[in-house]
Amino acid sequence: MFRSNLLKLSLILLILFSPLFFIGCGGGGGGDDDGGTASTAAVVDEASVNKGMEWVEESIPGCQIVEASQIAAGILGLRKNFDQSSALIGLFATLAAAKKQAPDYLTSIELAPIEIQGDCGGTLTVGSAHSNGVTTYTLVFKNYCLADETTSPPGETKINGKLIAKEIGTPGDSGPVISKYTAATDGKLTVATGVDRISVMLVNFTYKLGVPGVEPGTPTQAHPDQVTLDQLSVNFETQKRLMTLSNLSAMSYESGDNSVAELASGRFSISDRGYVDVSTSQPVVMNSDGDLISGSVDFAGAEGNVVTVSAGSETGSFSVELNGEPMDAGMDCSSIALDNIPLL
Fold it and tell me: What pTM was estimated for this model as a whole?
């Protein structure tokens, strides 16, 4: 379906570059309201940035705080062993496993629904319907369970909910001429492990192709792919934290062997902690090996304060500046396994 490199760039923008660095102060009011957004700008200062980085280290497997000098010189040595049983990582692992079980069903345009049995119970029903150039994919999770053999004792991840994706085009002589993709959840998608529970709501995600076609062409700077998103809410129910990304507008294209992403706008909020406005001050560039080689993302909060997160010299490392002044610490997220995220 989608171009994997460009989706990886989108995931990096939404996950690695998300402004958790400076609104991690205390516990938010997650609750059951997955649609709430903050109405006031977040406090952005040195204390909140440091607190936020600590929260990232504790909550996102594959990320850790490092001294700024390590980022400049390159990060060497052993990586920390991270717990891979978190609910969010479990979701990615479950979708990847489902894709491996039935790859044909996830790419076919006209097949009856298939029911996939979970490793430890539950089902994932994958259906598709095609009409007048538009293919609709429906994934229905019912206590769909994936065993995690990397933990001791083995853990379980259970997913419930519905995800709907569409491949939109017009009829052509050689097949549908594809112009865009859309995706949304039907209500909440819940993911639970023995210790964590999250719920996810995705509203009006659209990926518009710069070069439409039966086999879409390579996007260029003159004709880029465009990504818009009304809202993505992730409620970390166990930690009582509700995170919302809204009004996202971005574009991506190929430049030589590199993939480039530019974020025009987006607003990220955590419950009652406030919001920040997000944009790229330098385009985010990823090479053909999937490594980030350059790019900077700005997060503007209250009183005109701005945090800038930039790609470090070592793959997966990020330096952090506050109002143009380097912080003493940054983040090393090189242990996040993006290749395990199913990119359809």
Answer: 0.73
Is 302 in a helix, a strand, or coil?
A: helix
Residue showing tokens 């406090």: 43
Under a CB-based contact definition with an 8 Å cutoff, are residues 244 and 233 in contact? yes
Rounded to whole angstroms, the Cα distance separating 281 from 153 reads 45
Q: Is 188 exposed, middle or buried (0-12, 13-18, 19+ CB in 10 A)?
A: middle
Q: Which residues contact 265 (CB under 8 A, 6 or more apart)?
A: 247, 248, 249, 277, 278, 279
Q: How many CB atoms lie within 10 A of CB 115?
A: 12
Pairing of strands 274-286, 64-67: unpaired
pLDDT in tens, 83-132: 333 444 445 444 444 444 443 433 434 446 788 888 889 998 988 888 88
3-state class of 5 per DSSP? helix
